UniProtKB/TrEMBL annotation:
GO molecular-function term, one example from the UniProt record: sequence-specific DNA binding
Keywords: DNA-binding, Transcription, Transcription regulation
Keyword Transcription in record: yes
Ranges for domain HTH araC/xylS-type: 177-277
Source domain of life: Bacteria
Keyword DNA-binding listed: yes
Provenance organism: Bacteroides reticulotermitis
Protein name: AraC-like DNA-binding protein
Length: 279
């Protein structure tokens, strides 16, 4: 795998691409990527994230990534090393000593998702990038205080993004037991166990939830739900007293036929046959 090295402490690249010009690569620097327009997919380590206009991505040294472009995309890359912020001997009044721009870039869940902000931050973010690009086209950005504070403002928005999602940078993530208990309690309610609903309930980004779940449970969310539903359906069938229509209704299947197809796909026989085994 190719490794992308950078020796300058700051580098700005603005490019329009019909096809992504870089193959999968690792890097030795930090990178903020802004999508002005276009759509496609961002492949980050083992995670695939769809992108569109206004999205922001973060990368840190050692990360592997590339993009696939589905519609012509304008990318802006702000690439910097850890020495960039050290060059400016200033205190970050809006950041604690523990929470610095580079420490934000290392937050795993934040890198494995896309950052999308709403108005007015969306317009502000776009203008910040346009200002940096304009400055970069005419002057040396490396020693520019204007560019420095523009980049710092991006981190201010990212910090606010995290706070608005009610997730503190040091807050513990929900335990597997909490998530499993929620699923068990709501297994019969398809709306409550939808990715959007359960992700929002635990303050996890919906686009990141599947990755988060598989990493912590070592099984995909879809397979986990199906496995639990199957266990409960078997228990209902083994009683011999509950009608198939009642089971189908309980677990949100459209009809008995839908239930039968689901059951046979996993067990190799239909519910009626399974029900008769115990007789």
């Amino acid at each position: 795998m190719r490794k992308c090295s950078q020796f300058e402490s700051l580098k700005i690249i603005d490019v329009i691409e019909e096809e992504y010009s870089c193959e999968l690569h690792a890097q030795d620097h930090f990178e903020i990527i802004y999508i002005h327009y276009g759509c496609g997919e961002h492949f980050f380590n083992e995670v695939t994230i769809p992108y569109e206009k206004g999205d922001l991505f973060l990368l840190a040294p050692g990360d592997r990534h590339y993009f696939t472009v589905k519609a012509v995309t304008r990318f802006t890359y702000i690439k910097f090393t850890s020495s960039y912020f050290e060059t400016y001997d200033r205190s970050y009044k809006s950041f604690s000593r523990e929470i610095t721009p580079t420490s934000i870039m290392e937050i795993q869940w934040l890198k494995e998702d896309k950052i999308t902000v709403s108005e007015p931050c969306q317009t502000i973010l776009k203008n910040v990038f346009e200002n940096i690009i304009l400055y970069n086209s005419t002057l040396n950005v490396l020693r520019s205080s204007i560019v420095y504070y523009h980049i710092l403002s991006i981190f201010g928005m990212i910090k606010e993004y995290i706070e608005n999602r009610n997730i503190e940078l040091k807050k513990k993530t929900p335990t597997n037991a909490h998530i499993a208990a929620y699923i068990q309690e709501n297994i019969s309610n398809r709306d409550c166990i939808s990715i959007n609903m359960i992700a929002n309930n635990f303050n996890i980004s919906p686009s990141y939830f599947s990755t988060y779940f598989k990493r912590n449970f070592e099984i995909s969310y879809k397979k986990y739900i199906e496995k639990m539903q199957l266990q409960l359906i078997k228990r209902r069938l083994e009683t011999g007293e509950i009608k198939l229509k009642e089971i189908a209704d309980e677990f949100g299947f459209t009809d008995v036929s839908h239930l039968s197809k689901f059951f046979k796909r996993h067990e190799g026989l239909n519910p009626s046959a399974y029900k008769n085994i115990g007789k």
